[in-house]
Amino acid sequence: MKLNTLTFEEEKVIIHKGTERPFTGKYLNHKEDGIYTCKQCDAPLYRSVDKFDSHCGWPGFDDEKAGAVKRVPDADGRRIEIVCANCNGHLGHVFEGEGYTDKNIRHCVNSISLNFKPEKDPVKTESALFAGGCFWGVEYYMEKHPGVISATSGYSGGHMETPSYEDVLSKKSGHIEVVEIIFDPSITSYEEIAKLFFEIHDPTQTDRQGPDVGEQYRSEIFYCNEEQKEIAEKLINILKEKGYKVATKLSKADKFWKAENYHQDYYTKKGSLPYCHGYTKRF
Known about the structure:
The protein is α+β, with helices and mostly antiparallel strands.
C-alpha cells in the first residue's frame, strides 16, 4: 500500500490520534461538490452530499462510502473512534442520536485528515473484469483498494440476455460470477489491481473457490484490451515460476450484466467477512 508523506502536524492527528483545534479546519465550511479522501492513502471516504453543518467546530458527515470507515471503541469506552478502513489513519469520532439529520449520525472529522477531489475535475477511469469465486468476496476486497471507484457484482461470459442469479446458478445461461472494477489510473494501476485479484482468491483451484463448487465460480480474467492481457499473462507466468499451478483462464471481455441489488455490497450490509476469500501475499 502506497502512503503519502505527512507533515508533523498531520502526523499528530492521523498517526498519533490528536485533534485539530475547533473552527480552524480547512473543510469546516467547505461547500464544493466532490469526494473527501484520506490524506494518508487517498482512499475515498465521504461524499459532499453527506456533509452538514453541525456547528461543533469540525466537519460533519451523516454517512460514509460503503466500507471506507472503520469504527474502533476508545480505550475508556466513552467514544467511538473512526479510522480509514484502508490505512487505519485517524479521522475523528462518530456520534449517534444527536438528531442533526434524518440519519441521526455524525461523523466528526478532522479537516487535516482529509483531501478533497472536486466533482468538476473529470476523473479519467478505466475498467477491469475479474472472476474469482463468489462475487461477494471479490467485490468486498476490491472496493477497499485505493483508487477503486466502484466494484460491482455481476455476470459475464454467457449467451443469455439479462441473466438472473437463478439462470447462472442452474447453468442455463453459461455466465459466471464476475466483478466489474472501475478505477482511477492516476491513483492505482491495472497491474496493482490484477495482483490484488491473485492475492484475494486461490488461483490454483479449478471451477471452485473454497466451499463454492461449480463452473460459475471459476477463476478467470476478462481483459478489456491487449495491454491488460499482456499484464495478466505476465503475472500468471510470475506465479508459475513461483511454483503455483495457476488455473486462471484469460478471455476477451464480454458483456457485463449487473447482478441483482441484494448481491451488491453483500458483506458490508451483512456486517461480516467473506467466508471463502482472504488475503495471501503472492507477489
